[in-house]
Amino acid sequence: MVVSLKGDKDFENLLSVKDKALRINLNENIYGSFSEIGAGQEVARHFFRAGGASGTIAKTMSAYDKGFSDAIYGIEDDKRYVTKSRLTKMLKHEIKLLENRVKRESNPDKMFFSFANTVATIDFAKKFKGHGWMGIRFQTDAKEDYSEIQMHIRFHLIDAKAQQEALGIMGVNLIYGAYYKHNKPRSLIKYLYDHIDPQAIEIDTINFSGPLFSQVDNRLMSLSLVKNGMTQAVMFGPDGNNILPAAVLYKKNILAIRGSFRPLTKVNEDMYEKSFKMISDDKDFDVKNTMSIFEITLSNLLSGKADINEQDFFDRAELLCSTGKTVMITNFQEYYKLSDYFSNYTTKKTVLTMGVDNLIKVFEQKYYNSLSGGILEAFGKLFKKNIEVYLYPMLKNGELINSDNLQVEDNMKNLFKFFKDNKKIIDIKNFDSNLLNVFSNEVLEDIKNSKKGWEDKLPNKISELIKEKKLFGFKG
User: Fold this and answer.
1) Hey, which of 60, 101, 158, 344 would disulfide with 34, CB 3.0 to 4.6 Å?
2) Residues with Cβ < 8 Å from 278, sequence gap 6 or more?
3) pLDDT by residue (tens digit) across 435-473?
4) Is residue 299 part of a domain?
5) What is the sign, positive or negative, of the torsion defined by CA atoms of 58, 62, 68, 74?
6) Overall domain count for the chain
């Protein structure tokens, strides 16, 4: 078994990249292989240079030619190489070879690992900055099953050599973290950036699996990425596993609904169902090519507090996932940033569904004072050619408020009229008027205070789960 590091965080921060590689090399029981496609032997070379690599490295390989790569790992269904599927095949294939060629009988204490990455660095024209998948399949006890860490990275550097160097350092940090920080996965994530400029590489997806991480909730790991500024947006599916935004949003129609979902109410459900019906009425609509997203901003999770209440986050995630929702956590307080983010991945139709209160805030000048182009710059991103806003009405003092009578700042009225007349803002017509008096903050207080009738304001499955798991302070 690997011996834990002695000392504190400050001691670990003193470790250089060479120190980390050497420590792995000097552990006589850590033994494995490196397989790196696309960007060269960037990680393996640190271990060779550190010294003592013969006791750690069974094999290194770089199948740079696509034909060789396919011959070794098989051809992907989508014919691509920088994918999660490719990384998974690499990790499993190399571990199998290791087990077949290094006999356990003569190496009973060896803790095997396979490290792999498949990476595309910046192109010659410098239009595509590059991205990649990186992972490690490993064990910390020769008698135990393997655990695994997989992550997706996106380069922000504009020099191929600098990208390769950053990749090499992060790979060393990952291997070192897997063996010496696996019991503290959130600390492990932070240490991935040791000796790396945080602006150099973005980690937008990470998943932990296997016996060492049986108690890890990958949704919380996603939250950590956004909270620590490692990425601006993360997504997880109904199964709770993190998914790569670029992969699931690419060339898709998108329907996104922002909310606190604390809890998910019948209003949220009605907003989604009516919006989906509207978008599906388009003649070019393809349900198989549409992604529905329930988005929560980091500021919404903070709710005025200094830090995020993780239990509260778990409660929301649990409910959304239980109803088959795909969830996105972002650091995009302003809607134009969310819209701009989606446009990076698709030119298909994108719909942002929001309530009247949120749309009124969109047209408040104060949110755009930091932009050199002001509100016009923001709206150029918010209302791109393929983007529309579906507006859900509200009831105020007995009056129904929609795009026909809502009030924006005086200097915004002409701008608002322009987008409305050009059908960039569209009212949701067939809403359920019985739900206009349902507000999630009031429902939340009713749940906490065991006030009768709160169940009627939530979808049946949601109210049942809140009772069953005692979420949001429900006492029964």
Assistant:
1) 60
2) 351, 390, 426, 428
3) 999 999 999 999 999 999 999 999 999 999 999 999 888
4) yes
5) positive
6) 2
For residue 305, being part of any structural domain is answered with yes
pLDDT given for residue 124 in this prediction:
60
Find where tokens 């979420």 sit: 471
Report the amino acid identity of residue 28.
E
| Residues 274 and 133 grouped into a single domain | no
pLDDT of amino acid 13: 59
What is the span of the domain harbouring residue 43?
9-216
d(C-alpha 208, C-alpha 151), whole Å: 9
Q: How many CB atoms lie within 10 A of CB 144?
A: 13
Q: CB–CB of 269/459 below 8 Å?
A: yes
> Are 263 and 405 part of one and the same domain?
yes
Same domain for 358 and 282, yes or no, is: yes
CA–CA gap between residue 163 and residue 156 (Å, rounded): 8
pLDDT of the residue at 8: 44
At 77 the pLDDT is: 85
Q: Are 205 and 265 in the same domain?
A: no
36 and 181 in a single domain? The answer is: yes
The reply to whether 240 falls in a domain is no
The mean per-residue pLDDT over the stretch 99-113 comes to 93
Q: Tokens for 219, please give them.
A: 């949704």
| 269 contacts: CB under 8 Å, gap ≥ 6 | 459
Q: Which residue has the tokens 């989606």?
A: 342
pTM of the model: 0.89
Tell me the CATH number at 194: 3.90.950.20
Q: How far apart are CA 104 and CA 144, in angstroms?
A: 13
Residue 407 within a domain: yes
* pLDDT at residue 153, rounded to an integer: 96
Handedness of CA 337, 338, 342, 348 (dihedral sign): negative
- Segment 171-194, tens digit of pLDDT: 999 999 999 999 999 999 999 999
Residue 315 pLDDT level (bands cut at 50, 70, 90): confident
- Whether the predicted pLDDT of 83 surpasses 70: yes
Q: Are residues 356 and 431 in the same domain?
A: yes
Find tokens 């024209």 and name the residue: 125
CB 196 within 8 A of CB 41: no
Supply 364's token pair. 């408040």
Nearest to 409 by CA among 355, 364, 357: 364
